[in-house]
Amino acid sequence: MKQFLVAAVLLAAFSTGYGQCEKKTVLTAAKTDHLLADSSLERSDDGVITIDFDKTTFNVNTPNEGLLTGKVDSSVCQWLTPYKAGKMRLKITLSNPQGESHHFTVTIEGKNGKVTLYAVMDDEPDKIIRLVADKFEEKM
């Protein structure tokens, strides 16, 4: 009986976290950190960035470049507590207004209620973009 209860609780937790993966989500951050391969800070840029995504689309609105549109090529989602604790890894293709596109690996991690996004362009793996979310929630 204990095994059944443990399995039921784990299934409920997984289902709740997985449900988040299917929904339109928005992440907002007030600052962008540019890191080097050793995670040292190269520079920081102030300005609100909004990212909205779901299982097929990934759009970034930046103060400097405007709207970058993209598609999700693949994703792995493991949220234990939706929007607070867990991890998501996305492979995306992002295009700028001039039509240039780049491939990125995006990792979104939630630890201790703090959500951080890391983005690495496939062509420049030694440069990491980090956003600490001010908001990370389901988009209504």
Describe the structure in your own words.
This protein is mostly beta strands and 140 residues long. The chain has one domain (2-138): Beta Barrel (Lipocalin), CATH 2.40.128. It is built from one helix and nine strands. A hairpin with a 3-residue loop joins strand 3 and strand 4 (66-81). It starts with a helix and ends with a strand. Mean pLDDT is 85; it is low at 1-18.
List keywords for this structure.
140 residues, single chain, mainly beta, Lipocalin
Whole-number tally of structural domains? 1
Please write the string of helix (H) and strand (E) elements. HEEEEEEEEE
Give the helix proportion (percent range): 10-25%
CATH hierarchy: architecture: Beta Barrel
Distance between the amino and carboxyl termini: 40 Å
Overall number of strands: 9
Major sheet description: 8 strands, antiparallel, barrel
Q: In the CATH scheme, what's the topology name?
A: Lipocalin
Uncertain residue segments: 1-18
Assign the CATH class. Answer: Mainly Beta
Q: What's the tally of helices?
A: 1
What share of residues are in beta strands?
Answer: over 45%
Shape, please?
globular
Rounded mean pLDDT score: 85
Cα Rg: 16 Å
Structural class: mainly beta
Biggest sheet: strands side by side, in what order? 1-2-3-4-5-6-7-8
Short description:
The protein is mainly β. The protein is built from one helix and nine strands, in the order H-E-E-E-E-E-E-E-E-E.
Write the layout of secondary structure elements.
Blueprint lengths: L1 H20 L3 E12 L4 E13 L4 E5 L3 E16 L3 E11 L5 E11 L2 E8 L5 E6 L2 E4 L2
Antiparallel strand pairs: 1-2, 1-8, 1-9, 2-3, 3-4, 4-5, 5-6, 6-7, 7-8
